[in-house]
Amino acid sequence: MNQIIPYDWENLPTTRSLQREIENLPITAEAKLSLERLSKVTVRAGEQIVEVGRRILAFAFELIRQFPNLTLAIAAALTINALLISVPLLGPLLQPLYGPVILAAGVGAGALAELIEGDMRVRMDAVITEFEAIFA
User: Fold this and answer.
1) What are the residue ranges spanned by the domains of the chain?
2) Which of 6, 79, 84, 128 is deepest in the core (most CB within 10 A)?
């Protein structure tokens, strides 16, 4: 089946190129430091050491590159959600009700924008074709 997000799990970006990407982000120094620490997280699986942090960050950067409209919509929804919970007295009561709705609306709006403007339509058509071939 065709991959919706073409990503090569074997060829990860180098640590230096990942650090360069982190340094170019428009975020605070503390957030950059947290991302750099995450990139150095490793896990031992049997006899192999897996660089989990580097894989997570590389995949996140690839998602941002592939789906910029969806990323922006999710960030806006999370910001609105944070503003909602910061309302005194009512925020903690309203957030469990409206928070998931706001996030779902953000994901929906971003996905719709990707379908209209991005190449997600081509990818979804490929997935539909694959499913039709499987179930036909």
Assistant:
1) 1-66, 67-136
2) 84
